[in-house]
Amino acid sequence: MFPVYLAYCIKNPVGCIAVFITLLPLILIIYRKAYIDPSFKLLLLYLVFKLIIDVIMFHTAAMHQNNLLYFNIAIPFYYSFLSGMFYFKFSSVAFKRILIASMIGFLVFTVWDILKSNAQLHDLHNHRAVLFAKTVEGVLIIALVLLFFYEIIKSLQIPNLLTFPFFWVCSGLLLYYSSFIFIAPVFHYTATWNNSVDLGIANTIPTVFEILCALLFSIGIYHFSPANYAKQ
Amino acid sequence: MQNSEELKWALLVASLAMLTMAFCMISFVMYYQKRRFEEEKKINDIEKNYNRLLLDTALNSEETERRRIAQDLHDDIGTMLSLTKLSLNQLSKMTGSERSEKEDQIMRKSQSLVEETILHVRRITRDLVPTTLERFGLLEAIEEFIHKLAEDNNLTISFHADMEEFPRQAQKLELTLYRIMQELVNNAIKHANCTRIEIRLEIKEELIGLRVTDNGIGFDPEKMKESSMAGLGLLGIESRLAILNGTVLYEKPEKGGASAFAQIPVMPVAEVKLEPLHPFRRERVNV
Ligand SMILES: Nc1ncnc2c1ncn2[C@@H]1O[C@H](COP(=O)(O)OP(=O)(O)OP(=O)(O)O)[C@@H](O)[C@H]1O
Ligand SMILES: [Mg+2]
Question: Which residues cross the membrane (chain B) (predicted)?
Fold first, then answer.
């Protein structure tokens, strides 16, 4: 078993780092007790979920099996966790309602997308990545981040953004999803079992930014202090 | 798109463009936030300075007004009273032998009344303007203040200064400390029901501290500020201190009573004397 993993790691080092770097912010959240903030609790859940999915995908990839099913299934969950974080950051009730509606709507949309992309669902070997859902997820998350930035500027309550944990989290998300937004739909066509068009560096950009995103999360969580949170 | 090489480049360019935008967005938010904060702070500073100036002017004009009243009292009423005393004395001498007992009594009563009034006027003028403070400094002034109060014999007031020679401070600072001390002691006498008051004065590295402790019933300053019971005294202390960047801290010592600790940073002594009005320079000559 182990040599198989090792061989995969050597073949795809950046992807492997991206899988296991998730542990860093995850441990930091627990260590800094950031989970007392509901937003960070959701981030913790997101990271745990992401780690599980990534490890499963890592395992199946090492075993040379098609793992795109997990990739597809994870999309609505990622969106729910991440947009849930914003749920606690905004105060407007109308906005919260829209957010909940968008979670449900997005779930339905993803299921539809999976079904549409895979006419034969039971044929797991030829399972394909979704065409729209990942991009839509990116657009929605970026929109949320920008909204939050607008709120920050408008309310003017944070004296130093560099020590404000959630700003780092938002920056990480913004960068990661920006890097992914154009590549996601291409996956639908390229990441198939028989016809693997090599995207080369374009393929690694999102992975690199996934790592960067985890690092930015870590910086943000590092700045978290329960005392400060209590003051808010 | 057939050519995968072309596709690769297109994707790369698009992703990089998107990333650049994201970077710009983040930097913009950081920059804009910082600038707005600085502006806000500047405005706040201006407002604070303005308020302080207002307060300063108000207190200054209060002192000036006190001086004016003191001078008027001294110059007009004081002079008239002196003249009245003189006339009465003359009258007493002129009618010396031919007065009946009753007349003699009335005469003596008027004389003592006038004398008492003169004393009262002098006391009031002295209370209005702390002359000792201006002439001899804080230590003397506080000692004099205590001395006057010490006549009430079930109250002991002790005063302790850190050093023998307390260097003279800027006039404004001395006056502020003196008025604060006055209010704190007055409060202790009025509200605390105490038998001992202790005043301490100390200089610690650029900070002058004044501590007034009593052994009375004590009070909770937080509650006092919120409740409508608060008078002008504690507020006045705070506004006086705000002008000089000072702070005040109320404590509740374990043995009971109340303790207030005011701190003011030392200021350079100003060369110019504040007020031209100085009714008491002439006082000695007059008396
Ligand atoms: N040393 C003290 N011991 C107990 N209570 C005090 C003491 N000093 C102040 N207080 C309480 O705090 C209240 C507020 O004091 P403050 O000096 O502001 O007002 P005041 O003395 O009642 O009125 P003013 O000073 O305007 O004549 C007082 O009413 C009193 O109840
Ligand atoms: Mg008072």
Answer: 12-32
